[in-house]
Amino acid sequence: MTIDLIVENGLLVFPEGVVKGDLAIEAGRILAIGSSTAFPRAERKVDASGKFVLPGAIDTHTHFELPFMGETPPETWEQGTIAASFGGTTTVLDFVIQDKGGKLMDAVRAKVERAGKLARVDFSLHGCFTDFSDIRSVVAEVKEAVEYGISSFKEFMIYKKQGWQIDDWNLHIVLREAQKYGAIVGVHAENASIGESMIDKCLEEGKVEPVYHALSKPNFVEEEAIQRAVGIAKFACARLYIVHMSTKEGVPLVRAARAAGLPVYSETCTHYLTLTDDVYRKPDGINFILSPPLRKKEDAEALWHGLDEGSVSMVGSDHVAYTSDQKKKHSKTFAEVPNGAPGVELRLPIVYSEGVQKRRLSLPRLVEVCSTNAAKMFGIYPRKGTLMPGSDADVVVLDPKLEKTIRAGDLHMGSDYTMFE
């Protein structure tokens, strides 16, 4: 008997710990863990001596080919997922947004067809309802979407002007229906009334520079929305996760909810762990405009602590590969700049470098927050998120001695800049 591949001499990383061993791989699945001397002969071997062997990372938050605020990134699903693979991400969870007057499932099927032809890693989708003019149709589509394979939904508590905002009653309905069919609901937690009114106030006063993107949506805008979402989810007896959580106030709110026995989870993003709002005063400050905005050093420290102790469950990239020209085209005011920045390729390397190497996270915890927890939450564990026999052979070999300086020109994402250069 001959098998496809053996990864040998590596340090295999599991949520439970790190062990030295070999992986036998056959037909895209992990066949066995142990010693290569006990395996059949392999067509190919990879020597992972001195390196960590991880389950493929899962990015819980990407936006490939998303039209928003007058622009669509030039990066295709193919280019974006190639970039993901270069960064050790082998599964992405993208968002499919309902068109006004259209069906969510029509948008889901269209995206599956498009991504299915182009994606170079595995993918799944979060469904996003935006049209609540016929709530009975929304309720019916929750059931249909879950039966199709959608295990999660995301709702926007802001973006009223874009027509995406959900009100509290409809959020309750979506939470309740999703729970009924075993799905989970995530929320973009920002208070629309205060956040968007403060943006308008800044513009009226001529405060149009990038720094006002952060100043117009202070921590309270997220804090209040998280409090409200947790309360609504408790009332609906439903699971909830906070996407791209950015504030130090959010961490204890989620911790307290979980301590009270509520199934509340949170995700943060690479940029909230590493960047601060002083970048908005840089000459290229528009390139850092995303939502929620970047915060302070103490917010980043609180998020790292939350990742370490468990109140923050996952790290996503919130990847949107706008180019700097697309940002400049709408730079008359901070409020017109398309929100989002590229990040899918750098998520795992940065969380390793800034987390594990700086002793903020253990290696097993890295695997949890970048892979295993997402696989469990979105219904793809143990096929994904672990190196156990029978799991997909999504295997990442990480060299802890390799050093690289981040430069946009060396990356594979469809943008001409990176926030992390």
Q: What's the helix-strand series?
A: EEEEEEHEHEHEHEHHHEHEHHEHHHE
Sheet with the most strands, sense and barrel status:
6 strands, mixed
The proportion of residues in beta strands is: 15-25%
The global form is globular
Gyration radius from CA atoms, angstroms: 21 Å
Task: Give the mean pLDDT.
Answer: 97
First and last CA, distance = 48 Å
Count of strand segments: 14
Task: Pick out its properties.
5-stranded parallel sheet; 6-stranded mixed sheet; alpha/beta
Descriptive report:
The structure is a single chain. By secondary structure, the protein is of the alpha/beta class. Helix content is 35%, strand content 21%. The chain has 13 helices and 14 strands. The protein has helices spanning 77-86, 104-118, 135-148, 168-180, 192-204, 211-215, 219-236, 250-259, 270-274, 297-309, 324-328, 347-356, 363-377, and strands spanning 2-14, 17-26, 29-34, 41-47, 52-55, 57-62, 89-97, 122-128, 152-156, 184-188, 240-242, 264-269, 314-316, 395-398. Strands 1, 2, 3, 4, 5 and 14 form a six-stranded mixed sheet that branches. Helix 3 (135-148) packs parallel to helix 4 (168-180), helix 4 (168-180) packs across helix 7 and helix 7 (219-236) runs parallel beside helix 8.
Brief rundown of the structure:
By secondary structure, the chain is α/β, with parallel strands linked by helices. The chain has helices at 77-86, 104-118, 135-148, 168-180, 192-204, 211-215, 219-236, 250-259, 270-274, 297-309, 324-328, 347-356, 363-377; strands at 2-14, 17-26, 29-34, 41-47, 52-55, 57-62, 89-97, 122-128, 152-156, 184-188, 240-242, 264-269, 314-316, 395-398. The longest helix is centred in the middle third of the chain and has 18 residues, at 219-236.
